[in-house]
Amino acid sequence: MKILIIEDEKKIAKYLKQGLEENSYTVDIAHNGIDGLHLATHENYDLIVVDIMLPGINGKEVLKQIRNTGIHTPAIFLTAIDSVNDKVNGLDIGADDYIVKPFSFSELLARIRACMRRRTDNYVSNLKTGNVTLDPKTRKVFRDKQKIELTPIEFSILEYFMRNPGQILTRTMISEHIWDYNYESFSNVIDVHISRLRNKLEKDFDKGIIHTVRRVGYVLEERD
């Protein structure tokens, strides 16, 4: 598997490259956003690890431009910026995960494996709950005949709900499914994403489809 690391701190980049190559990954490095964007859009990678604070072009803009070209390579932000708003924004831009420095290398490896599992799962059939339909293959969502545009994280959360209809999903379960780890720092992020997901699914319809189970979590089900 080939990984692109976009990281301006050379010691960290060298450490990541060595550790990943010891785990049988092939690694390319870019030390600024301009070179990173060029490599990401001209070479084929299985995963991109990108810092946010980069010279030339910052990491968020790099990922925006990558996604705007239609490239859906899994991407992980690896950054010292740790506010909830930054995490939400980074995931909304199109990152598959968000890791805050300082980090453990074993955690990074686990997150990389989780990203690849999510991307390689071969789901074929459509999922349907009430009048909501989700196609895992084309990543399209409809409620009745209305197409619902979702961010990658919102799509992943909805898919998880739709594979477990009627089951109460706790914040811990959702965080472990989406990010492969359970961290309290992700609790508010999950609530924000579910609030936005609800708004997109329910704003033009009379009935809700995602319901809060107080002090427990959330459930997806059609109710009278």
UniProtKB/TrEMBL annotation:
This entry's Gene Ontology molecular function terms read: phosphorelay response regulator activity; transcription cis-regulatory region binding
- Give me the positions annotated for DNA binding: 124-222
> Which InterPro entries does the record associate with it?
CheY-like_superfamily, CusR-like, OmpR/PhoB-type_DNA-bd, Sig_transdc_resp-reg_receiver, WalR-like, WH-like_DNA-bd_sf
Q: Which Gene3D superfamilies match?
A: 3.40.50.2300, 6.10.250.690, Winged helix-like DNA-binding domain superfamily/Winged helix DNA-binding domain
Which stretches make up the Response regulatory domain?
2-116
Q: Which residues carry this modification: 4-aspartylphosphate?
A: D51
- Please, which domain of life does this record's source organism belong to? Bacteria
Protein name (Swiss-Prot/TrEMBL)? Strongly similar to two-component response regulator OmpR/PhoB family
